[in-house]
Predict the structure.
Amino acid sequence: MKYTFDFASLQEYWPEFLRGALMTLEMTAIATVLGMVIGVLCAIGRRGKRPWLAALCGAYVEVVRNTPYLIQIFFIFFGLASAGLKLPIFAAAILTMVFNVGAYTAEIVRAGMDTIHPGQIEAAEALGLSVPQIYWDVILRPALERVYPSLTGQFVLMMLSSSVTSQISAEELTGVANSVQSESFRSFETFIVVAVLYFLMAMLLKFAFFLVGQAMFPRRRRLGTPL
Amino acid sequence: MGGSFTVNHFLYLLQGVGWTVVLSALAFALGGVAGFGVMLLRTARSALLRRISFLYVQLIQGTPLLILLFVVYFGLGVVGIELPPLLAAGVSLMVYCSAFLGEIWRGCVESVPRTQWEASEGLALTRWQTLVDVILPQAARIATPPTVGFLVQVLKSTSLASVVGFVELTRAAQVVNNSLFTPFLVFGIAGVLYFALCYPLSRWSRSLERKLNVGRRQAA
Amino acid sequence: MSAVVKLHDIHKSFGAIEVLKGVSFEIDRGEVVAIIGRSGSGKSTALRCINRLETIQSGTLEVCGHRLDQPTLDLRALRQDVGMVFQSYNLFPHLTVEQNITLAPRRVKRLPNSQARALAQESLERVGLAEKIDCYPEQLSGGQQQRVAIARSLAMQPKVMLFDEVTSALDPQLTGEVLRVMETLAQGGMTMAVVTHEMTFARRVADRVIFMHQGRVWETGPGEMLENPQTPELQAFLSNGL
Ligand SMILES: Nc1ncnc2c1ncn2[C@@H]1O[C@H](COP(=O)(O)OP(=O)(O)OP(=O)(O)O)[C@@H](O)[C@H]1O
Ligand SMILES: [Mg+2]
């Protein structure tokens, strides 16, 4: 049997694809910001002096990193629903993304903070900086500069795995693809188009992170050397 | 709806664990072979081969696994090859693994000092002999921790096979939950089972890496 | 003359190992004290107790009117009065020279950004590096980095400065330029405690030398004491070089 490709019949769905892609990007942007916050707080918690908090943060990171995202989604979404808490799907999708990426971020940020030499912290203490000031100016800023490539790589991966939220009927790009393919009966073409769209979005995201990095790390911009 | 979680449900989930392991092993074995090829191409002498394989890796790594799965599942089905879900999942996971493993191993091969290649060339070894006898044994040591770490990634990824109807652990959990509707319990147990598979591997990978770092520091 | 730094019977242990076994000495305002001794004799530890990078187990310790042995200690006020320069410079690698110098004044003393650059300029002139203000640490030689570290400390206008083997990581040529900066500071009336292996510097610049041995102040006196050691331990230390 000879198969003839028919991409033309997908043209009318172009606005749908665009809407899905934009929603994916929107979810990614929100989850990146919130995941960053959770990740940094959790990394600080794991280094902190309270053993119970360090253990709690450590357990969170290990549980997330050693279970599939899809299971996390089902657990959170259907679990909350069974407990009577019906979140809007958009919010639920973002919640699972933040829960997931926060743990990966925490691990990466912690690795970055571990590269800060204790002498740096002593020097800051000797200058009279307070603990929050030391965390921000002397630990986090250089740590983030150091792990920026792996951190942004993780956020790109999160954008790609957000396709899984289609399984709780989120209307992001994969969700849109599912409805388009069932309407158009052009499944193969639909998913090829969507694959290309994801690829372009990944490139776009990488470029955006590059620009943000240039703005955030003047030393790297000027010297071009890794810290 | 209704009924409570029984031993039979648990056995059903355990059966799912079995299929998860089978699919992971299949994906890892096939992906390993293909990944080795990708690594060879990524480090080839021909710039064209390097560029093509680079594009391949970028494309696969820039596409969600779920989409890859759909492309394989619908694509090959539509072309006329009727794939059972296990094979569809196996093929897409193989492609996925080949890109990631190929890239991990390329990094390891390239971290072997250039001078090792030059010394071997001086001894009149062929490129293949150099690779097999000199480079790979050294690269393998460095490659073990990240490869074991990636195995965790593969185990988790197989949960997506549930989407095309392959009854591994995640699908089994969905089936049980659909009849009991106790998601916290059922997906919680599934999570624990995944954790039991993945966590030891994660620990192993980390301890391998620590040992490697200690060894390297002493050598330096 | 009033003492700015007073240590009395300081005891300090790391776990089971007692590193300071009853150390007492004082430093007067404007005085330069060199602390010498074998590796592991507790010099760094004693110095680090003075600005509370280490906490003591017993004894009384008063620095610029701050009682370090009291729970009421205002740590940040102490740190503003005491500057410290480290063997490994510890410049912040992600910040320019200017930002390294002005970070603490801006954060701790709330210095407006408009005045920060002038402060950095002024501090750098004191160490002879005004033209490096926009460089990053990695663009400087070791000696230059150490002088920036001194400038960074000076910018907080400390009343006492602590130096812990600040030239040990430098080759002889670069050592000279750092020691000259320290000598100028000493002549300007700065109160200084200097842990050093540079015996010529100790003899020439220090008002007083403290020889530490096995966690105790073993011998103390003016710089000339190095020509005429009283204890066999100091004698042995001086004749071995280190
Ligand atoms: N944080 C620490 N934990 C445990 N032991 C320590 C610590 N810091 C120092 N020590 C021990 O305390 C003793 C004194 O150390 P200190 O650094 O004060 O010596 P030092 O006189 O400065 O020597 P050096 O000339 O080598 O710098 C040493 O035996 C050292 O091993
Ligand atoms: Mg010392």
Q: What stands out?
A: The mean pLDDT of chain A is 94.
